[in-house]
Amino acid sequence: MKRPYRSTPVFDEKTLPAALRGEHRTKAGVWGVIEVIEGQLKFMLADGTGETILTPDRPGLVQPEQPHRVEPIGALLMQIHFYDEPPEVSAAAAPVPRP
User: Which of 12, 15, 55, 62 is the most exposed place for a label (fewest CB within 10 A)?
Assistant: First the structure.
């Protein structure tokens, strides 16, 4: 199993940085996996093509250079893990395209 080269601290709904709540992206060649430890987090692609609710059973996968933002839904504990190759994450992690 692949290991992240870096992980953020654990954030809650109050400590989640404003930079993550606004549009941002990973660097070229960097994948992110958003792990929700407790609660729910809304994960939105910046171009409006995908949105999903992340939970402890449903992580979020961020592709390299993919503009996105997140929004907590109530009480939350979450962490982001960064990889320099595609991580092993279930297909359920991808954002749901809007009709």
Answer: 15
Residue 61 sits in a domain whose CATH number is 2.60.120.10
- Is residue 6 within 8 A of residue 41, CB to CB? The reply is no
Q: CA-to-CA distance for 98 and 50, rounded, in angstroms?
A: 6
Tens-digit pLDDT profile for residues 39-51? 999 999 988 888 9
How many separate domains does the chain show?
1
DSSP string, 52-86: EEEBTTB-EEE-TT--EEEEEEEEEEEEEEEESS-
Joined together, the tokens standing for residue 46 give 């910046």
DSSP at 62 = E
